[in-house]
Amino acid sequence: MIFYFSGTGNTRWAAEQLAHATGDELIYIPDELGNSKSYQLKEGERLGFCFPTHGWQPPRIVREFIRRSTFSVQPSTYIYALTTCGDNMGYAMRILRKELRRKGLSLDAAFAVVMPESNVCFSFLHLDTPESEQRKIEAARQRMPHICQLVKDKATGVEELVKGAIPFTFTYILGGYYNKHLITDEKFWVDTEACIQCGLCAKRCPVNDIEGLPPHWKHDGSCTNCLACYHYCPTHAIHWGNMQRGQYYFNRREDRK
Prior knowledge:
This protein is α/β, with parallel strands linked by helices. It has helices spanning 10-22, 29-32, 60-68, 92-101, 130-152, 167-181, 200-204, 228-232, and strands spanning 2-4, 26-28, 37-40, 46-52, 69-72, 78-85, 109-114, 158-160, 188-190, 210-211, 216-217, 238-240. Residues 253-257 have low confidence and may be disordered.
């Protein structure tokens, strides 16, 4: 089983590469939310968690899913995690390990894959230039077969992460502020003149937080601030706060089998 969450497609692509290499079932975390669920791992089966780094921490939606779920593993169950990040992921994997330990689970391997930046909520973070975007995607395409082989072989004791120069500051100070104050739909707004009322933002929202035309957010606390609505809008009619930023989402056409 590979449980994954993705907003702009980076992590979805990585999880698909793992599923293709291992033959393991791919499960989209938002589809599993709701009532508490129990997952029974078969003998020899792998258990993977794939997620984007949000503010140098695992996304809230991923942490909530783990807390609500029960994983019945076997002695032979191989457990791993992969996170995608714009430049570094701080101590995001440390936080995930704590969540898993509460469920009696421990990681055999952990990986980070640098991919194009999608965060537009911090003034000091900027999306990649087209050239940088392509370099990161090409590096990720070169790196994923290595990760897939390690997971397929069930390599243990592996930790290939990109923590950055000051991971504590990134995760617990900047990331603490981000995850406490900026995981909200309150800052999204729509330029009604640019909006073509296509409804794509609502379709892309993993937690069904958007409704109506022109779209509006429910403000019910469900938003995980994945920014899918912002980045996939075909006319860039959706904005976050007052900052003027570009858009990015992973184009999967070249990777479809």
